[in-house]
Amino acid sequence: MDKAQNLLDCIGNTPLLRLNKLSEQTGCEILGKAEFMNPGGSVKDRAALGMVRAAVASKQLKPGGTLVEGTAGNTGIGLALVGAAMGFKSVIVMPENQSRGKIDTLRAHGAEVRLIPPVPYKNPAHFVHTSGRIAAAMNEESPNSAFWPNQFENLDNRRFHETTTGPEIWAQTDGKVDGFVCAVGTGGTLGGVARALKARKPEVVIALADPGGSALHNYFANGELKLEGSSISEGIGNSRITANLADTPIDLSWQIPDSDAIPMIYRLIREEGLVLGGSSGINVVGAVRLAEQLGPGHTIVTILCDSATRYMERLFNAEFLASKGLELPEWFAPRR
What we know:
Layout (H helix, E strand, L loop, with lengths): L15 E3 L1 H7 L2 E6 L9 H14 L8 E5 L3 H13 L2 E7 L4 H9 L3 E5 L10 H15 L4 E2 L7 H18 L6 E4 L5 H13 L4 E7 L4 H7 L29 E5 L1 H15 L5 H17 L4 E6 L7 H4 L2 H6 L13
Parallel strand pairs: 2-10, 3-4, 3-6, 4-5, 7-8, 7-10, 8-9
Antiparallel strand pairs: 1-2
Helix pairs in contact: 2-3, 2-6, 6-7, 9-10
């Protein structure tokens, strides 16, 4: 009998989808790793599983304990799902400006959600620092009762991608992958996949697709962390080099504006039947740019992170989009 022993067995081993129209347009094979098909609906299920399993193995977390994390949403959903499957509670601290869809999904997965005002990372009231203090207080009262994954600096995040996502891509392309590109939040996905692919094929090109409002493109292009622009995408971009991103072999980088990424989301709906979030739009635009740079005949892989259904009030809200200089596609506009 072929069966999964529990929900955790369903994390990873996601399909690699050919994006047909874009492949035909560029003359390259443009492939998307369908991470939205993980049980928690995003690529962050992998990081959650990797970090929690490592914490259990190292006895940082005792049975019946609590996962406490600061997150913009998807990692929290992954942690709540993994935690419930392994017998742990979850407390998620997140900025109150995140999408209602993600907040509601977290609560539906049984997590206690604590919303706080968004502030810069250097501010002690930032959601990451706040979650660390909550976990420390719980452990002071009862040692090893809480685990703070600290996803940005926890290298078990990156290691899990290095041992699962990267090798899966290598096997699914029969080792013919020429380039990999994606956006960065914690740096775990890009850091892990880059290491796995470079170890197998040193000439593979690794590229960063960075949203507006992030400092990372300027860092890799010009050597300076400098915030540029803004974006409606959530959970990606950064103002610092995290432990997971540090020393990642990045060959190319681009800043992808919303004016390119959001239309790509609508194009993927109409051309491929894929209803994806803003980070996937940025990733796919990055894949097209990498294909154009390498030229026809190459195989490019990117990450399809999560579903657009978590961002309906942004991606399909004409008033909100207009306030950002964007617009809905004609086919979505209500009939008069």
